[in-house]
Write a structure and sequence with these properties.
six-stranded mixed beta sheet, 14 helices
Length: 435
């Protein structure tokens, strides 16, 4: 096992890094200058990277950087949850800078915790080592244009860590590490289950709540192509069947705020299953689009004789956006004054919404958790026709009439059945072991 040796006269007891898997040890000891680790959730990627950063800071006087996709994520993921929990005050020349997220070591080394929100802000020189965490979520130019040049004059090292996100720039550097044509590069791929400290029940829970493609990507570190059908798990032979309103269950109305079309889905939650009963697909309503779709949904409930509870879901951006006089949210509150408000403060990521819907269509264990009434012709068409483009984004241009009603469905599904992740406590327990 590598030992953290203190190289300054200040007496500091050497500490040992406890690497919990053979894979972590292999990566740590590899002589490769540029290392790429594609691993499933909670495998221990960030802990391994932090071990490398701290070892470097305690044995040299270089500048080292931990870079996350955003500064906010960097503060949350490394600074607060991991780094500050293991820092020994006797290592430091002064207290950590909470504003700039910097740590100054007695060796003369500096550890900077940064976000890649603005790649130009990462430009500089003389960086001895850098970790790019969740590199798949960063802008493609972050490495070649900002980080790579900063390592040149001191021949600094770099470590790319993350979970795959389709075949993007993270896959490119992973493949570089697999090629003999790039001897200073090396890459590894590990599944979450290969972390012996991870409770196996966490993975089994993911099998029961996650669609197959997302499970393979997030838990088995598989590079999955997103190009093609977004809602690939939907099959009308399995998911389309008559749906009736059931008394005693609230009706869920979920809106996508758009002018043409304005859409809404109406359904009920049957245990862990969303059942879609009816849809609203309003076109050419102009500035009254939101009110028109809301009134259409209200009319459907009146025709069915519904007088039970109603829950409202939809796009968080409607709080400020206006397709009519008041904001979209204000219109819904006027039309449904007694409804339970279930719209979240911020909108989920598109891919998270899509993954949540796919997980209800079919989970990794083969179970079906979603039903659509045959009358919901536009929703069925969306589930079958919406596609991802090469860049992993939904195609909203080829046919501007699609994606909107499936977006509406996704807001409800993601709010009530988000794709689950493992508990952060697993990572915290591990941190305490290796220093």
């Amino acid at each position: 096992m590598p030992t953290l040796a203190q190289t300054t006269p200040t007496p500091t007891k050497p500490r040992r890094i406890v690497l919990h898997t053979g894979g972590q040890t292999d990566i740590y000891q590899s002589p490769a200058r540029f290392k790429v680790i594609a691993a499933g959730r909670r495998w221990g990627k960030t802990e391994l990277a932090l071990a490398k950063l701290l070892t470097s800071c305690l044995t040299t006087n270089g500048v080292y950087r931990y870079i996350a996709p955003t500064q906010k994520l960097a503060r949350k993921t490394l600074w607060r949850r991991k780094l500050k929990r293991v820092l020994d005050p006797t290592w430091l020349s002064k207290p950590p800078n909470e504003t700039n997220l910097e740590v100054w070591f007695k060796t003369g080394a500096i550890l900077e915790v940064l976000g890649a929100d603005d790649p130009d802000g990462l430009r500089g020189e003389g960086v001895s080592g850098a970790v790019l965490d969740e590199y798949a979520d960063m802008k493609e130019e972050t490495w070649p244009e900002a980080v790579r040049p900063s390592l040149a004059d001191v021949r600094g090292w770099a470590m790319f860590i993350g979970t795959p996100k389709s075949f993007n720039h993270f896959h490119t550097v992973y493949e570089r590490g697999q090629s003999a044509q790039h001897p200073v590069w090396a890459s590894w791929q590990y599944k979450s289950i290969e972390n012996p400290l991870l409770d196996l029940e966490e993975i089994e829970e993911a099998r029961r709540t996650t669609d197959p493609r997302t499970f393979r990507q997030e838990w088995e570190a598989s590079f999955e192509a997103l190009k093609g059908r977004a809602y690939y798990a939907f099959d009308r032979k399995l998911h389309v069947a008559p749906v009736e309103l059931e008394s005693g269950l609230p009706v869920c109305l979920s809106f996508d705020f758009n002018i043409n079309p304005a859409t809404c889905v109406l359904g009920q939650a049957h245990g862990d299953e969303p059942w879609f009963w009816r849809e609203v697909f309003t076109t050419h309503a102009g500035g009254e689009a939101t009110r028109a779709s809301a009134m259409a949904a209200k009319d459907l409930l009146a025709e069915a004789g519904w007088n039970g509870p109603v829950r409202i879901y939809g796009d968080a951006t409607g709080k400020a956006r206006k397709t009519t006089g008041p904001s979209d949210h204000a219109v819904l509150r006027q039309v449904f004054p007694g409804a339970v408000w279930c719209i979240t403060p911020s909108a989920p990521h598109v891919k998270d919404r899509v993954a949540a819907v796919n997980a209800r269509c079919q989970t990794m264990d083969g179970a079906i958790h979603l039903r659509v009434d045959p009358s919901c012709v536009h929703l069925i068409a969306d589930f079958e026709q919406v596609v991802f483009l090469d860049d992993g984004e939904l195609d909203k241009k080829t046919n501007p009439m699609v994606t909107h009603i499936s977006d509406a469905a996704g807001y409800w599904v993601h709010k009530d059945w988000p794709v689950k992740t493992v508990q952060a406590a697993v990572g915290r327990a591990r941190v305490e072991r290796w220093l």
